[in-house]
Amino acid sequence: MLTYSLAHWMAFLSTAILLNLSPGPDMAFILGQTARHGRRGGIAAMFGVWSGAALHVAMAALGLSAVLATSALAFSLVKWIGAAYLVWLGLQILLRRGTGEASGVAVPSTPRPGAIFRQGMLVSALNPKVAVFFLAFLPQFVVPGAGPAALQLALHGGLIILVAALIEPPLVFIGDRLARALSDHRRLGTWLEKALGGLFVTLGVKLALSER
What we know:
Blueprint: H1 6-21, H2 25-62, H3 65-70, H4 72-95, H5 113-125, H6 128-137, H7 149-181, H8 186-209
Helix pairs in contact: 1-7, 2-5, 2-6, 2-7, 2-8, 4-8
């Protein structure tokens, strides 16, 4: 039960690594929170995104993701909610007034891990393209006779999240170091924050215009 060949694991893990390295709303959110709130913010964002991904894996294993894949109404509803949420996050950043003393030294923002976690979970969970992706990708690695299909889907989906848990923490620590190194350059920091806000708005618009 749940026995696979070496070739199977090599194909799956290499694909999982490439998937986790590809840019997207999840990665942008994690790195953005790291830049804004430091290591704690990045870690909270990671756990939130992983929780949202786990929800998609559970939906795929239970067959619920098929609803998004086959129903144009359900897909569009989740898509527009997710797009609106990304745009809202971006506008919050763009319209936020900078904080600082008259001396020009920036006051570091205080991370709120709970709020960042919830935002990360919503960024991932409200992206219907992720649900459709898992529904299309995971069945390719279901091997007849290796065990119940739902269990195989859950196993491979969980391993994708595990690969993310190995890849993303180093990126958060590197991003935190870069943010600290640039902390004295207030104008550059402000520009990067506005660029991040613009990125979220762009990702939201891109999601809104996407098709299944």
